[in-house]
Amino acid sequence: MRIAVFSTYTYDEAYLNRFNTGHELTFFVLPLNEQTAALTKDFDAICIFVNDTVNKDVLAILHENGVRLVVLRCAGFNNVDIAAATTLGIPVLRVPAYSPEAVAEHAMALILTLNRKTHKAYNRVREGNFSLEKLMGFNLHQRKVAVIGTGNIGRAFCNILRGFGCKISAFDIYPDQELAAAGVTYGSLEETLADADIVSLHCPLMDSTHQMINADSLKLFKKGAMLINTSRGGLINTMDVIAALKHGQLGYLGLDVYEQEGKLFFQDYSEDVIQDEMILRLISFPNVLITSHQGFFTQEAMEQIATTTFRNIDAFASKADLHNQVVIG
Ligand code: NAI
Questions:
Q1: Is 318 in the pocket of ligand 1 (CB under 6 A)?
Q2: Does this UniProt record's set of keywords contain Oxidoreductase (predicted)?
Q3: Which atom of ligand 1 is closest in space to residue 296's alpha carbon?
């Protein structure tokens, strides 16, 4: 099949070329959106990532251009209008799981860095400053961690937390019985947020979870708690989180995702004037750590993404069952 691959960097090309099962791939660095959708003419399929936009308008252009398939190189599909794709008869296939440990380990990396301030210590020591002033952290052992969403990633994260000796409380609309049997305490969202030292988000972005962390829910947090979001930026209201950081209700913030990341993440703006006031405000806090959506970025995950993507394309090409199709409901 002729496939237009959007939002690609050197690492995407390397892994997709390595695991290609015989398709004609054309790589575009550009993201797919209303402005770039015209590039899809004469392609059979498009292959996209987290910050490509496949809304109703883009789908109409894809359909007109003869595109018959959308394949996502990720698990989340909040950037695709599934209902509109279904109406047009364009299946949307995704990679439902790729090394959940990669994201879970990154969430723990954010926690450890924010808490023990290793990023600051690294810079201090390089400048000959061996002072410990303002580097004090806290033990994770026996601390209470709230895990919101205990699917593939949340489960892997709980298992890491168990190794650290944390007390784990969780909220999921479908509690995991194995985790409950292993000592994870499930409760309502309000109960779970209430007395946690650390809150980590691992549920998908949907209408029901959009901005679930907002001025009201932040009031439930223990004063000075740490919030970690490696899931999707839209789960939190960033302005409300900034306000909570300003008056100390939130003690630490670790983000791998950001509401407006589409305009920034994966690009080098080191020589430009960044226009996004919210991210500039976030960067200015000493207790905020931001990474640009790199939770998934391990060798193992890239290999799984590439192999599953081609398995999905091959299934469509050979009219086999589409196990990884995103369906409404
Ligand atoms: P999953 O589908 O295995 O698990 C999601 C869990 O969230 C399920 O147990 C589900 O029941 C639960 N859930 C659904 N609605 C909920 C609600 N309203 N409240 C609480 N829990 C709810 O998904 P997985 O693989 O664990 O991924 C989770 C999210 O992580 C993805 O949706 C994606 O947004 C994000 N992600 C981030 C990556 C990164 O690089 N930072 C990479 C991969 C995924």
A1: no
A2: yes
A3: 40
Q: Render pLDDT for 187-217 as a digit per residue (tens, 0 to 9).
A: 999 999 998 999 999 999 999 999 999 999 9
In this prediction the pTM is 0.93
Asked if residue 155 and residue 42 are part of one domain, the reply reads: no
SS3 string, 49-87, reads CCCCCECHHHHHHHHHCCCCEEEECCCCCCCECHHHHHH
Give yes or no for residue 36 CB within 6 A of ligand 1. no
Domain ranges, residue 82: 2-98+299-317
> 133 and 234: one domain?
yes
**Residue nearest ligand 1's atom 25 by CA:** 152
Q: What is the DSSP letter of 328?
A: -
Sequence letter at residue 118: T
Instruction: Give the residue, by CA position, lying nearest to ligand 1 atom 18.
Output: 209
State if residue 75 touches ligand 1 by the CB under 6 angstroms criterion.
yes
